Write a sequence for this structure.
């Protein structure tokens, strides 16, 4: 008996793109990640300085964040996103550069929000030194 070999067709999930979206900018001391989502929060496109071509310590520069955000803005505009709300998070120094890159990439910025977590009372201090 000959067995029938069935080939499974994988269907790629498509994300519904809306004209209004959100841009999440996550800055650290070493990297910056920019994600553009639709109004439901599903990721449309994303980029980082490593995807643009920066390696090592150059990833943390504001110039690298600008190029990465311009790249992700062009992708988003091609997919149909027109205006975005920006949500930034993290202590990095390249947040403002990434915002400027999104704006120069062709997206209309409606709001900018910073949701960096701030400790209310901080960590418990070290115990007192005994002499």
């Amino acid at each position: 008996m000959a067995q029938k070999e069935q080939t499974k067709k994988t269907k790629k999930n498509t994300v519904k793109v809306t004209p209004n979206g959100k841009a999440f900018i996550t800055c650290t001391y070493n990297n910056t990640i920019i994600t553009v989502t639709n109004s439901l929060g599903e990721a449309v496109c994303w980029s980082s300085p490593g995807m643009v071509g920066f390696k090592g310590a150059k990833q943390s520069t504001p110039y690298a964040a600008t190029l990465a955000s311009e790249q992700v803005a062009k992708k988003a505009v091609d997919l149909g996103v027109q205006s975005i709300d920006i949500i930034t998070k993290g202590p990095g120094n390249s947040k403002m550069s990434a915002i400027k890159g999104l704006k120069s990439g062709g997206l209309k910025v409606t709001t900018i929000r910073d949701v960096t977590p701030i400790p209310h009372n901080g960590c418990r201090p070290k115990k007192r030194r005994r002499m």
About this structure: Residues 20-114 form a domain with the Nucleotidyltransferase; domain 5 fold (CATH 3.30.420.80).
